[in-house]
Amino acid sequence: MVVIKKSRYGDQELGLPRFARVSFSSLRSAQMDWQGQKRAEIVMQFMLVVFAIAGLGIGYTIGSFPTMMLTYAGGVVITALITVPNWPFFNRHPSKWLDPSEAERHPKPHLNVAAASKKKAPKHK
Length: 125
Known about the structure:
Blueprint: E1 3-7, E2 10-14, H1 18-28, H2 34-62, H3 65-83, H4 100-105, H5 113-117
Antiparallel strand pairs: 1-2
Helix pairs in contact: 2-3
């Protein structure tokens, strides 16, 4: 099954299953919520520690430092592939931002400079 995708660059053929198309389209949106960033950080730290322990165990058992480093390097690559892209499970609580027209109707409050300068200065002896 070949899917024709309409884009601003012309028609593109995507020979991908539906779940892959959904994932790739969500990766291009480049949005991750705050809870998703926290979740990605926790997953990254956990996976790096697990791969470090696994690499140390494998390297010690085999008695090979290069094998230990390759095991850990592979773990870093796998961790990056899981935590760096914007997967949909990192955007379960999207932030709701105001539209620009709505934001213009509610301007920011301005700091009153005169009131700030009337504070009492400390007395020096």
